[in-house]
Amino acid sequence: MDLRIQRSVVSNLRTRPKPVEVGPFVAGLDPDTASPFVNYATPQPGATITAADVAALVEAFEQADRKPRLEYVISAAPQLESLLLAAGFTVEARHEYLICTPETLVLSRVPSDFVLEEPGTDGERAGMISAQMEAFGEAPEATEPAVAGVRRAQERGGIALAARTTEGVWAGGGQASAPQDGLSEVGGIAVREAFRRLGLGGTITAGVARLLFERGAEIAWLEAGGEDSWRVYERVGFRPAGKRLYISL
């Protein structure tokens, strides 16, 4: 499973607006945002990596005016971490990733007074993004590049699913990348504070996974940022499967 997940990450980064291949690395660079959580690199699984390769990757990030950062499945490049540490990188986090299949998925009831829908207009996309940003503690402003990014992802086969009240107030949302090799990463699951503890997080997660499976994906995967989200994801059928590393300069 580790190799499948890592290969899908590589393939997904190659669909970014400015993908860059540096030796054994693929970097997904976005000209519209400097966010390190959007601009990062990952190694091709099984590739031989040297200190010179790491130096070349750092230079590519610096030329693009982006912070050098990597995300990857640890077992796909077991010697890479020591090379990165020697180059001055610092570990941000080690997370277990979880996977879900059509057989393990547990659908969750949509709480009363709420609806789930795939945003079909830029106005709806902006509403979902604003709710997600507020939930993540950021200014609830949906920029044109962010809206265009969601639209492009949907056009490529990705999923966006928004939650709103029946009165039209945006409560949260979640997304998933277009499947690569039958796999898709689920992310951005977020619910505004005023609407938490109602089961919306699990409902959105299960809804995104259901849409992926209906459209041909074999496995949905994600990472939990804490014990609360871990429990939410396990309730809807996600199970631990491997470990990933986040590391930056």
Describe, in plain words, how this protein is organized in 3D:
- The chain is α+β, with helices and mostly antiparallel strands.
- The protein folds into 2 domains: 2-88, no CATH class; 114-242, Aminopeptidase (3-Layer(aba) Sandwich), CATH 3.40.630.
- Helices cover 33% and strands 29% of the residues.
- The protein is built from 7 helices and 11 strands.
- It has helices at 2-13, 51-63, 80-86, 122-135, 144-155, 200-214, 227-235, and strands at residues 18-22, 25-29, 40-43, 69-73, 90-100, 114-117, 159-165, 170-176, 183-191, 219-223, 239-248.
- The strands form 2 sheets. An 8-stranded mixed sheet has the order 4-11-5-10-9-8-7-6, with helices on both faces. The protein has a 3-stranded antiparallel sheet with strand order 1-2-3, sandwiched between helices.
- Strand 9 (183-191), helix 6 (200-214) and strand 10 form a beta-alpha-beta unit.
- Helix 4 (122-135) packs across helix 5 (144-155) and helix 6 packs across helix 7.
- The two termini are 28 Å apart.
- GO terms for molecular function: acyltransferase activity, transferring groups other than amino-acyl groups.
- It comes from Actinoplanes lutulentus.
